[in-house]
Amino acid sequence: MTTTGWTVLRVLRDRAAGPCLAAVVISGFGTSALWLACGVWVKDLTGSDGLAALCLLAMWAPAPAGPLLGALADRLCRKPLLVGANLLLAAVLPALLAVGSPGRIWLLYAVLFLYGATGVVADAAQSALVASTVGPALLGDFNGLRTAATEGMKLLAPLAGAGLYAAYGGACVALLDAVTFALAAILYALLRVREDRPVRPARSWRERTGEGARRLWTGTSLRPLVLAGGAAMLCAGLNGALVYAVVDALGHAPAYAGVLYAVQGAGSVVAGLVSGAGLRLLGGRRFAVFGIALTAVGVAVRAVPSDPVALGGSAAIGVGLPCVLIAAFTAVQRETPGELVGRVSATAHTLVFVPNVVGLAAGAGLVEVVDRRLLLVLLGLGLLVTAGWLAQRPASAERTAARSPSDANPA
Questions:
Q1: Distances from the Cα of 18 to the Cα of 23, 132, 261, 411, angstroms
Q2: CA distance linking residue 113 with residue 128, whole number of Å
Q3: CATH of domain 207-402
């Protein structure tokens, strides 16, 4: 068996990592299916592209409140919180059965907003639970496999969601998603972990939220990784807004963007599978630098109107971009005290992923007034500058990958 095969087996056999990964795969399938179906659903009901785009905005709207929502993951026991969050979504999603006319679209937006807020809490709780129960040597492998599983679901689930929507309508897709969350809740309930009840805090909610942000900002190894991740995701958002301009320059119909996204997703699956070994070999900082530099090349070469070059660029972006994300979130889990992991993780997610939404919005405006080739070259240069800046940071982050396999919890 290959090294990657043994790594996957070790993660799946771990008493916490295996069930958590399975829950991510199952709920992620439903989420990816619903994400596509909701936009099509609103478009069919209203005929409005703008209202359809608001579905994505409704899901992302709670993200800036990540530091505040993440405090719940440090205030409550993580396992029951994960069970409750998944059961809540399983119970709420069937409300979308009532969405049958343009006048009920508000209900869809409300559910998606709750979906996004619950997801922020659940991500923080899972990060904290995994950090406290999975051995340090397996954390990078777990985060990599989670990325591979998530990206794999993005390749398969939208097709399933589109098929279900075409055959039975959006309500059927919502019910599918509800079932996946119910199954994820069962998996979390079956986790064999022991958690100490959190100590009742003496500080206010605002002070505790700020404590997580301060820990992240004062961490000499965490702050550069998270800031570099945010910068990379900002550029990725800008690049994503240019995809249809790239497709047009290649002389293809807009649907060809799906091919580019599929190649990028396949690259991300590969990155997730090898990230554990990459972190051990290079260390967190250099692994992130490698990923950002590779992404820079992939973005810049999209300025060349050639199918093979565009496909190669998409593959490079798919492999490179997850590297900095996996390095940053693994460092957060390894270097943050257990009682703060939820808040620090949620704050890191906000700082990394909100810039992606900003980039998408800014890119949608810039692509109308600036030549795509100039934008792509500038984005590539910006990513290279980010990689160079991160490469000059103190090397203290290297300890994130310097753990011995013997540190792992027994399966």
A1: 9, 14, 28, 9
A2: 23
A3: 1.20.1250.20
DSSP string, 325-338: HHHHHHHHHHHS-G
Tens digit of each residue's pLDDT (9 = 90 or more) over 81-133: 999 999 999 999 999 999 988 889 999 999 999 999 999 999 999 888 888 88
Instruction: Measure the CA–CA gap between 160 and 183, rounded to whole angstroms.
Output: 18
Structure tokens at 266: 């396949």
Separation of first and last alpha carbons in the chain = 19
CB 123 within 8 A of CB 348: no
pLDDT tens readout for residues 372-389: 999 999 999 999 999 999
Which residue from 191, 189, 154 is spatially nearest to 28, judged by alpha carbons? 154
Q: Are 229 and 288 in contact (CB under 8 A)?
A: yes
Hunting for tokens 């990394």 — which residue is that?
A: 352
- By the 8 A CB rule, do 151 and 111 touch? no
Q: At what angle do helices 105-133 and 307-335 cross, to 10 degrees?
A: 60
The one-letter code for the residue type at 390 is: L
Identity of residue 294: L
Q: Which CATH architecture has domain 1-192?
A: Up-down Bundle (1.20)
Give me 385's structure tokens: 């500058």
Q: In terms of C-beta density within 10 A (0-12 exposed, 13-18 middle, 19 or more buried), how is residue 231 classed?
A: buried
What does the DSSP 8-state code read for residue 317?
H
How far is it, in rounded angstroms, from Cα 73 to Cα 81?
A: 7
Contact 18, 11 (CB under 8 A): yes
Domains 1-192 and 207-402 share a fold: yes
Q: What are the structural domain ranges in the chain?
A: 1-192, 207-402
Distances from the Cα of 188 to the Cα of 77, 91, 126, 269, angstroms: 12, 16, 10, 24
